[in-house]
């Protein structure tokens, strides 16, 4: 008589994922050098680039550094979720952690949930630091009303989740933990440029690059953050004179769904060299 394994109920997956997320946060907090580097690097880049940019946009009192700050918050969240999460999973796969977890009653979805929760919590700290740098160094104004705070919240949640799931999926391309950083940093840097993170304003990008950037979540996360922090008087500097909240939500939700499907289809418990 043969039996087939029953699928793990969603509630059990979420419960296991929550426990795994707590363990991941505890382990990450103990690696102090990784914590400092992960959180500090985007803030340092913001300070350096903000000091280089100068001037005020016509028809608005927004400076170039203030325009840059929300985009760098998006880049910091993407770095914490996409790069660090992807390299962490590659390291887990390389050192045998995933093989050991496979012997436990933990479905891959619970591991994905735990890693994503860890990345989102770390990203909150990253975003708070970058907001503080923008406010203190460049006089960036905090969102002026509850609607803008709400926009900041849902853009962060959807954008961070999409980038985390993509980091998990792309980690499968790395043959080892050593190569994971190169595999993940290259697409991150390309997307940061084509998404207008390092350009002020975004409309200054060549049209082919703007079109390419619009296919990926980083562009929409940066635009959503700008809509939360910057006044509407800056809209003439955007590609479209509108914050496009509906389209932003649609693209980010689509990437969350697509990223989850990629994770579940490409996730591997062991590296290629161990097969």
TrEMBL record:
The keyword Phosphoprotein does not apply. One of its GO terms (biological process) is response to antibiotic. It comes from the Bacteria. InterPro entries: ABC2_TM (IPR013525), ABC2_TM_bact-type (IPR047817), ABC_2_transport (IPR000412), Nod_factor_ABC_transporter (IPR051784). It is a multi-pass membrane protein. Keywords: Antibiotic resistance, Cell membrane, Membrane, Transmembrane, Transmembrane helix, Transport. The chain crosses the membrane at residues 34-53, 73-91, 112-137, 149-174, 186-205, 249-269. Its main location: membrane. It is found in: Cell membrane; Membrane. Residues 33-270 form the ABC transmembrane type-2 domain. One of its GO terms (cellular component) is ATP-binding cassette (ABC) transporter complex. GO terms for molecular function: ABC-type transporter activity. Belongs to the ABC-2 integral membrane protein family. This is Transport permease protein.
